[in-house]
């Protein structure tokens, strides 16, 4: 069996969006901060999962270009999570 590390959820929305709704255990680094260099704590072998909205697509492309080949977008993002998994989450 491999020693595959669990994925973590990276949220690149703005702080005010994160305050509206977030998922337990997610890590908030707004896109501007991520691109400015706040990614140093992410190990290159970690699997980053990001919701598939435009800022997240940009963040995924940025991470992949900078040596994080396992960065992925989550299908449907937090909206799909709220609809399918946890309907108690606010939607905006």
What would you say this structure looks like, in words?
The protein is an alpha/beta fold and 92 residues long. It is built from four helices and four strands, in the order βαβαβαβα. The chain has helices spanning 15-20, 31-36, 54-65, 77-84; strands spanning 8-11, 27-28, 48-50, 72-73. The protein has a four-stranded parallel beta sheet with strand order 2-1-3-4, with helices on one face.
Q: N-to-C SSE series?
A: EHEHEHEH
**Biggest sheet: strands, sense, closure?**
4 strands, parallel
Q: Give the proportion of residues in helices.
A: 25-40%
Strand arrangement in the largest pleated sheet: 2-1-3-4
Number of helices: 4
Beta-strand residue fraction: 5-15%
The helix-and-strand class reads alpha/beta
Examine the secondary-structure arrangement and name the CATH architecture. 3-Layer(aba) Sandwich
Average residue pLDDT: 78
Number of strands: 4
Q: What would you give as the CATH superfamily?
A: Rhodanese-like domain
Count of spatially separate domains: 1
Seen as an oligomer or otherwise, the chain set is: single chain
């Amino acid at each position: 069996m491999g020693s595959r590390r669990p994925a973590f959820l990276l949220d690149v929305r703005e702080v005010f969006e994160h305050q509206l709704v977030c998922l337990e255990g997610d890590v908030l680094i707004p896109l501007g901060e991520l691109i400015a260099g706040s990614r140093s704590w992410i190990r290159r072998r970690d699997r980053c999962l990001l919701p598939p909205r435009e800022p997240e697509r940009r963040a995924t492309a940025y991470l992949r270009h900078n040596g994080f080949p396992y960065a992925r977008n989550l299908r449907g993002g937090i909206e799909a999570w709220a609809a399918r998994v946890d309907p108690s989450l606010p939607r905006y």
